Sulfotransferase domain-containing protein
Amino acid sequence: MTARSSQPLFWRTRKSLTRLPIATLLTFAAVAGALTMLMAQNFFSILLSKKAPVKGVATRLPPRPRPLVIVAAGLPRTGSTWVYNVIRILARIRDPNSVAGWYADLINIWKNHKTGRYDHMKESWLTAYKSLNTTLVIKMHGPGPFKLFSHGAPLKQANLTVITHRDLRTEVRSWVYQNWNASIHAGNIGSTPFGDPNQWVRVAHHILDERLSTLASVGSGRVLDIRYEDWNQKSFEHQVKVIKKIANELGWPYSREELMATAIEAARLEPPANNAVLMYNPVNKLHPGHTRVDAKDPTFVHALEKGFRAIEKDADSRSFLKSKRYL
């Protein structure tokens, strides 16, 4: 009977292994390495199967928001550009790939650079932009541009049309402040100077006609009407309240922090300086005419008083002012 060695098993095994050929030892090492890798793979497979959360890494993308077509169709001098920018910012938060711009700028990018022509005119630009599967925000004044953009379709085709209104008296006054004389829309309001009170009434009628045309184009579609005086020169909280009203119509959820961030960004918008090179900011669409002007010429002040009284006496203008609680 062979006597049991007094050495530990580890030392006896180690001694036996040293007597094996090098090739055999390398084979053992390779097998051991393969088994180790297999065990590690199984370990991580178990972890992944349990979907263990990894800090800072999203395991799944959030659902893509439903693409919307939103038209900011407010008339000039009614805060339409501020409202457009609020919509643009809100859309960017929920749909970062959203497209936003002045309707004419959006049309221009479809130019065929090889031929120099706008070949996409065979198809509506609205259809072309919808193919991007992202939200589209179009800025325009009144319903006319949308017909060009959509090959004659009414504003009812949009998911939401946002219009703006203001006290007719101060709206016409703003036209005068900016020296938007009768050369603007001369076919609609004639060429009489604003010193004539009747010219103020004609401009007011033009504004009301454009407003009614916009509402008729929307028809049974969705429309939101924003009052200029509800946010302009109001507190930050008032502006957030109006922004929340717009956000609710978009149908996307927004946190209080996102609404406040939108208000801050909108408050920081600035028009470019008046120069012959940059006529407007290509992103926010602000131009030098968006600056506030106060006219102090006594002659103008007298004309303003007569213009205000003429608008107040006009039946159509007075009806609008009363319906919107300006009188």
User: Anything to note?
Assistant: The two ends are 122 Å apart (CA to CA). Confidence is low (pLDDT under 50) at residues 181-190.
